[in-house]
Each structure stands twice: as structure tokens, then as C-alpha cells.
Amino acid sequence: MKTSVDAVSGVERKITVEIPADEVDRRIEQEFTELRRMVPVRGFRKGKAPMEMVKRMFRDSVEAEVSEHLVKESLTEVVKEKDLKVLSMPGVEGAKVVPGKDFVFSATVEVVPEVDPVGYKGIPVTREKVSVTDDDVSAAVERLRESFAQFHVVEGHGAAASDLVEFGFNAVAGGETVDRSESTGVVLAGGMPYGEEFERRMLGVEPGTARSFEVAYPADFRNPKYAGKTVAFEIQVTGVRVKTLPEMDDAFAKQFGDVSGVDELKTKVRERLAAEGEEHSRHHAEEALRKALAERNPF
User: Fold this and answer.
1) What is the CATH number of domain 150-244?
2) Strands of 103-110's sheet, edge to edge?
3) Does the pTM of the predicted model rise above 0.70?
4) Which of 16, 87, 210, 227 could form a disulfide with 110 if both were Cys (CB 3.0 to 4.6 A apart)?
């Protein structure tokens, strides 16, 4: 991975990252392999669908997921390596995954300016008290169950939130085709990769039906094919699968390391949440201190 950090101003730094094509391809294949293992495909036992079919169905979703992961991981590494004191989340440019090509993007971040602090004595610093409730633990455990979700065909079922919809589509904007796929799939949750409005328009579709609609995308939409355009979609639905979650029992809990059952899993989850809460409290106190120092040390 090649990186560079350039000063844009006294408080801004531009981070440029270039990840080799072979690493990009390895991550894409890794995502496809995991997806093939987890998501059932009609006509095949789970994990046995041809890889090329899986790639046709989920290419857009996988490439968007890989892009997001590569950006987060590489920025974290650069910030740590260069010891950057980042104040704001970055604005990212580029970051489009293309198989066989280097992944290149840049991110502009605000950093803590270098000053010789004065007047720091007597600044009040308050640490938030960390409290992990039973509801917090239950929500975290539920997220674990979500990570093991499977999708199954249910006859006569119209697509609802969190269902997996399999479809082909043609997308037109300004009289030109901007995107198309004979076979792809998307889980109706979170807006990846076609956006939340697209997902709302897909609610209720059934296998063997067609649906047409338009979606107006904002200029900053993550996919440049759609950004700033009103896109007309022609959808041909081939399948709808309902998400099912595993039972929360001791057998499920034992998948998460050296735990004897559900009760011990919840204990470990509570400990992890408490540790994360302490880290958040510390970070919040540091941010408050930085703000107070900045007010007393204008630059």
C-alpha cells in the first residue's frame, strides 16, 4: 500500500492511498467466497452455487462493501502510522473498486493544529459514567444473531424490509443506459448499494413480476453512475427470500469462542460493551479538553 499525507492548510491534511490491484482482487474474492458460503441460491445447496452465478448476482454489493472496508482500514492505518490527531471525519474522493486495477482514493481531514498551549491549568474535565444495561446487551447479542442470518424462499411472499430480492434490471438516465444487470441481488436494509429510496420502491415485489420506477439521486451519492441523476429503473424480479435468524441457545453461543452457553456469552458481551464505553468516555473527555484549549489558544 502506498500512502502520502500533504498539508492543505494549518488544520487540514490530504491523505492519498493506493492499494495494489492484487490485494483488491484478493479482497473481492474473499467477499464472494464468504457470500457463497452464507447465502443460499435457488436450485443449489447452500455453499454449492457456481461462483460465477454468485458474482453475477452480488457483484455491485460486494464491490461497494470491499470499497467501504478498504477505505476504513487504510485510513485507520495511515492515521496511526503518521500519528495524525484527526478532529473530523474525512471527505473521500475516488474509492471505486474495479477488479484488476489499483484502488486509489484521497481523503481530506481536519487535524489538531500544532500550538504551544497556555492557560490549560484549571480546565474542568468530566468523564462520563459508563453504564451497560440489559437492553444494551440484548441489542448486541441480537446483532450477533443478525450476522448469522440465512435467507429462504417463501411462496407467495411479497418483499418486505430485510428480505433478499433477486432481480435483473435496466437503469436509464437522460435517455442513456447508465447501468444494467441480468441477475443481481440486494437485501432491503441499509440502502446498499442502490439507496434507500430504491429499496422503498422494491417493497412488495414478488417473483415473476416486473416493476418500473424512478429514483432521484443526490449529487454526492456514492455511485457515480447515479449521482445527481434521476434514474428510471425497469425491474424483473426472479426471487424473494425471507431472512431467518438462528435460535438463541447454548449451541449458538458456543460458536463465539470459549463460552459454555448463552449466559456466559452475555457476560462477555457486557464486558466488551463496558470496555468500549470506557474508551468512548475517555475520547469524549479528550475532545472536550482539546476544544477548551483551542478556545484559550486561538491560531
Assistant:
1) 3.10.50.40
2) 2-9, 12-19, 103-110, 91-94
3) no
4) 87
